[in-house]
Design brief:
By secondary structure, the chain is of the alpha/beta class. The chain folds into 2 domains: 9-138, Rossmann fold; 167-266, Beta-Lactamase (2-Layer Sandwich), CATH 3.30.450.20. The chain is 40% helix and 24% strand. It has 7 helices and 10 strands. The chain has helices spanning 17-29, 40-49, 66-75, 96-101, 114-166, 187-192, 216-223, and strands at residues 9-13, 33-37, 54-58, 84-89, 106-110, 171-177, 182-185, 231-238, 244-253, 259-266. The strands form 2 sheets. A 5-stranded parallel β-sheet has the order 2-1-3-4-5, sandwiched between helices. Strand 3 (54-58), helix 3 and strand 4 (84-89) form a beta-alpha-beta unit. The longest helix has 53 residues, at 114-166. It is rod-shaped.
């Protein structure tokens, strides 16, 4: 649509004053915003400076006829998508093949019929609006696709980082229930506690079974819910063969308060 609340912004190009006044009055009466110029050079400058929604272009003009004006409009990036309706008198020879070949989308003839002018203008503008809406939807879809690709790339990077950390020979990574029962654990964590395989750990033991201080689990669970960030503590652990080691424990309560994610680093 054109500016304001008008039905469309139309550039009217005709070198005959009576024709331009009559056609302009018809269009304004129907709610269109109309700009008027009397030759091809002015039409090109006006269209490039402020592209209209539609151009009504007289074919027979001195210096530069409508066909040439249309060709130059279609050759410029700023104006190539503006639809052009040619204006021709009944007694003039309208080369319809040429009119469409140079980029015109329709034509109207003089003397003007208000109903025909309005019908042809509104039909072209409706197509133009639909094309713009489709282009906007396509652009929006392209943006969504780009966002999705970006999210997928970020997810792949995160998964790659997670796999790198999970396979770390230094970090013991695990997840427990609130009561400390081990739900997941990487191989390094399993080895830290002196076990050989995950079947000995997952769903079989609680983290507190390997604290040398039996009050540590109670203390950690009391501290964790009120901690907005990762909770860290230096804790002494007992392996399954009763040997002991000191470790730095990092814990985080998940958003649902149903599990605890942890990392254990042996000191």
């Amino acid at each position: 649509m054109g500016q304001g609340d008008t039905r469309g912004n139309i550039l009217l190009v005709d070198d005959t004053p009576n024709n331009i006044r009559l056609l302009s009055a018809m269009l304004i009466d129907q709610g269109y915003e109309v700009r008027r110029v009397i030759n091809g050079q002015m039409a090109l400058k006006t269209a490039q400076a402020s592209p209209p929604d539609l151009i009504l272009l007289d074919i027979k003009m001195p210096d530069m006829n409508g066909y040439e004006v249309c060709q130059r409009l279609k050759a410029a990036i700023e104006t190539k998508d503006i639809p052009v309706i040619f204006i021709s008198a009944l007694d003039e020879v309208l080369d319809k093949v040429k009119a469409f070949a140079v980029g015109g989308v329709d034509y109207i003839t003089k003397p003007f019929s208000e109903e025909e002018v309005f019908a042809r203008v509104e039909n072209v503008l409706t197509v133009q609006r639909l094309q713009r809406r489709l282009q906007e939807q396509n652009e929006s879809l392209d943006q969504e696709i780009q966002k999705r690709h970006q999210l997928e790339e970020n997810l792949q990077r995160q998964q790659s980082t997670y796999q790198f950390l999970w396979n770390s020979p230094v970090l013991g990574i695990f997840r427990t229930r609130i009561d400390g029962l081990i739900l997941e654990a990487n191989q390094r964590f399993i080895e830290m506690l002196g076990y050989n395989s995950s079947t000995e750990v997952i769903g079989q033991i609680t983290l507190s079974q390997h604290y040398t201080d039996l009050d540590s689990q109670t203390h950690l669970l009391a501290e964790l819910p009120g901690t907005p960030q990762d909770f860290s503590s230096k804790t002494q652990f007992r392996k399954c063969d009763n040997s002991q080691f000191w470790g730095r424990l990092f814990l985080r309560l998940n958003q649902e308060n149903t599990a605890i994610d942890g990392v254990l680093v042996e000191l």
